[in-house]
Design brief:
Helices cover about 35% and strands about 15% of the residues. It is of the alpha/beta class. It is flat and about 60 Å long.
């Protein structure tokens, strides 16, 4: 698994026995964030509640660092968990994910770029290729543009992506 952007990994939706939705996914948590064109009262409230945002984030991060071996595999992101939740930069891991990493049936490699070779994938900075029978190209948002930019030929770009009227954009709440 080649990771271009490190994200907070959540193995379950509870932190220290408290559901994450109680801290992040409710109307109260919306008061903790400054928003464009918010009024004076909401801005003041978000400023006053910012220590609570910091406490929630550190509370969650301490649990994740203790229970998930992200540090061992150099997968701890630079942003806080709260920023990750607000921007959608966290992922929910399947059950026993890091057990599969320990067994080496899943290999984690942080890298910004890679290239395809005959037998798999070559990661930037690694001399040894990763042999792979199947490569799943999960690009995230604007994946169509990333696929299009892989090819120089306009003919291939049109085949891979199609035309503007055949593309259905992904929706992202912001």
């Amino acid at each position: 698994m080649i990771v271009r952007t490190k994200r907070w990994n959540v193995s379950q939706m509870k932190v220290w026995g408290i559901p994450i939705s109680y801290m992040y996914l409710n109307r109260f948590s919306e008061l903790l964030i400054h928003k464009p064109r918010e009024g004076l009262i909401l801005s003041f409230l978000a400023t006053i509640l910012s220590p609570l945002r910091w406490i929630f984030s550190n509370f969650t991060e301490s649990y994740l660092r203790k229970t998930i071996p992200m540090k061992k595999y150099d997968m701890i992101p630079k942003h806080s968990f709260f920023q990750g939740v607000a921007a959608g930069l966290f992922c929910i891991l399947p059950e026993h994910f890091y057990d599969k990493v320990e067994e080496e049936s899943i290999i984690l490699k942080p890298s910004k770029t890679f290239e395809f070779i005959k037998n798999g994938v070559l990661i930037e900075g690694d001399a040894t290729p990763i042999n792979a029978d199947v490569v799943i190209y999960a690009t995230g948002y604007k994946g169509d543009q990333k696929l299009k930019n892989m090819f120089i030929s306009p003919w291939f770009q049109k085949i891979v992506v199609g035309t503007e009227d055949t593309i259905v954009p992904l929706y992202r709440y912001s």
